[in-house]
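Newbie here. two chains, one complex. Structure please?
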Amino acid sequence: MYYDYYLYYLSYLNSLYNGYPLIVRMTVFMVMGLTLIIVSGMLRLFYVGLMIHLKSKRVAKTEIHFEDKLLFVMKNIANYDVEEIQQLLEYDAANTKRWKPEIVTDVVLSAKNQLLQRGELNEINYKNCLLALNLMGFWEKRIRTSGVEKRRAALQIVGDMDNGVNSGILSKSTFHKNRYIRKTARDLYTSQDTYHPFRFMEENFDDEFTQLDKLRLHATLIKRSNEGKLPNLMRWVNSSRNPNYIIFILKEIGYFKQYEVAETLMTFLEKHENREVRAQAVLTLGELNDHACALDLIARYALESTVVRIAIIKTMGKLKSKVTLSFLVDAYRATEDANTKLLIARAIKNHDQEGDLVLRQLQGELHGNEKEHVLFNQVLAEKTLVSL
Amino acid sequence: MVYFFTYIIYFYATALALLYILLMFMSYYKTRRYRYQYSAREENYLKKFPDEAPGISIVAPAFNEEVIIYDSVNSLLNLDYPKFEVIIVNDGSKDKTLDILIQEFDLEEVPYYYVYKVYCKPVYRVLRSTNPAFSKLIVVDKQNGGTKADAMNAGVNMAQYDYFINTDVDCILAEDTLSKIILPVLDSDKQVIAVGATMRMVNSCTIERGRITRVKPPNRLIPLFQETEYLRSYLVAKMGWSMINAVPNVSGGFGLFDTQVVVSTGGFDSASHAEDMDMTARMVAFMRENKRAYRIAQCPYSLCWTEGPPNIKVLSRQRTRWGRGMLQFIIDHRKFFLNKDYGRLGFLVMPYIVFFEFLAPIIEFFGFLFLLFLLLTDQVNYDTFWMMLLYVYLLGLAVSIITILYDLILEKLYKNFSEYLKLVFFAAFEAIFYHPLIVIFTLRGYIQYLTRRNFKWGQMTRQGFSPSNNANTVKNNA
């Protein structure tokens, strides 16, 4: 409505330099542009400051109203139904302000986490609280409709709520072109779905599989294993071609102690060529404490790449037997590389008292090699003074 | 001739304006993405599963730091991260730095098989604590090497983890620094060779037991101007460049580096006056020469607080050294310039450093002399003169205001909104009172380098972080 008014002043400034060279008129244009940036920047600064202030007030007010009541209901041994909770919380989900569900969700999740840590959470009341406040509905709607940022946050919050999820709502997100949405949705699906939860695990999870995904999936697998026995993870290794994913699954096999996989792992080692994958397979054998593999790994040591050799040394340190100790002593004598010597010495030390004895024997064999003396002293002192 | 110079200066300023406007947009896009990519949930995974968290070595050289060493080491040891080690390199201190460390942290000499993976002056001994509370602390006592680079190399040789933080003992790190800085590494499909983060001034902040309990903008003028300057550099320039994987420099005050890549490039260059810029460029060159994909990431969050120069004398030393370092860097690495083998380093980073960082003070200085000449010879058209002057002034102010806005949107660190307005208010005077000093000191650095004067590293005299020590200022920091 003030368009003409602004245009007048803009034209006025331009008209002042009518007839001047193009460069001067360009400068006038740039000055006007920069002035606009400064004015809008200042206005935005005040607006953001105001919004932050408003939000902190709203958070404080919401916490005062809900926190104690929610803690009371969610830890109470007696079960409350949805209407009772609605009455107690004095909350009408249908006629609430737009900003409120987000803040209420934070309060609910904070109360849930507090009680969960103390082992006092009444799951039924917690789920009824979510129903009474209609929080699942709010966040599921956001998963369906909002932009990238809000959508990803919504997926994460639904995951944190741990109240199941409608896989129909997730389906669009699990194949979204934005990798952050796609991977969060797939992780959520794996963690919450009841019909076919490991669907994406069987399909390589995602082509862009990173270290952070490993952490997320590790958390999800722990949750799943707490709910029931995990399937044999080796079958996901066989169906994948992504080395990062295979390494992750092999590591998880060791973490979840799937002893039945050990034999298959030895066959896998013979077939697979990627050295990082082979190294992880060797480490997993160590985690599974598979003594049967020791002789086979020792036979391979001389021909393997450095990464795999290091893995073999570490595995020998875990298996701790006479065979492994004798191998490590031979390997120590044969190696010239300082780092490998240190690794072997540490693996020998892992063999408890016998290891210490062997280390001292090896040290005794040294003739004037001052540096190597220091190496033995260092390894022998580790864990007695401080753990490295 | 007059027209030629006028046009050169005008087009240079316009190119700079357009570049900064472009960087502002790129930075905005990248910062927004960063905020939704990495939330507190991702950081919590690291704390929840400590065995899965990648280890990080923190390397901090110390030379005559008796006043701050106790608070500084305590601050580093109290970082909230499951797997890290703190390596303090005592670079031949002549004061009580080492004695304080030994006494306060119950240190004892331990046998250590020290391998010189990268060159540094001889290491005398390695000390560790007998107290389990300080089990993360390692102190390397070495012969003074005269430069931070040499001391850093001694620390890099000790680092047992895949990534290390390069910092100074006068820096205070935010408690969640490590979990924030490692996330871009974990989330990348390419090898991340370095990560930078925003640094700001600690000068007027309240610090208790090595932790910042209240963030405030500096009270003194020079650190206050430098606060906005740092925010511009990190939040707009580096964040913008990170969008296209062309971060020119990961700061020597605070940065995360890939240990193996640093070792492969031969470590920090003791002869360099800008060892951080030099290291970043050499790491990129190494990756390019070995045809390995890489990324240098930038974290927008403020993770490190450092002492800013409290007066003109200290500012002069700092900027003169930076000036020397920049010229040395350009000369040493001239082969990268417009060299297709080095990709973005050759075609973006080096031209940017040469044209917009190195040449800027020269053009500004000669532009000023030229203006004086025009004024004296009465060749100035006052109708357009004010418009041109306003143009240059508004450019700086606009970038500063947008930067302060980004900082507020990202995370409200100052308690009061009025403290942000204080930054804005003083940003309006930066071009008049602060910037001319920077130009003069940088030019002095160029001249010093070209005349090959004997450069000495400044002796530091600090007053410490503790409230009892009056102020958190550096008296003589070079």
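Moderator note: The longest helix of chain B spans residues 2-37. The longest strand of chain B covers residues 294-306. Thread marked as resolved.
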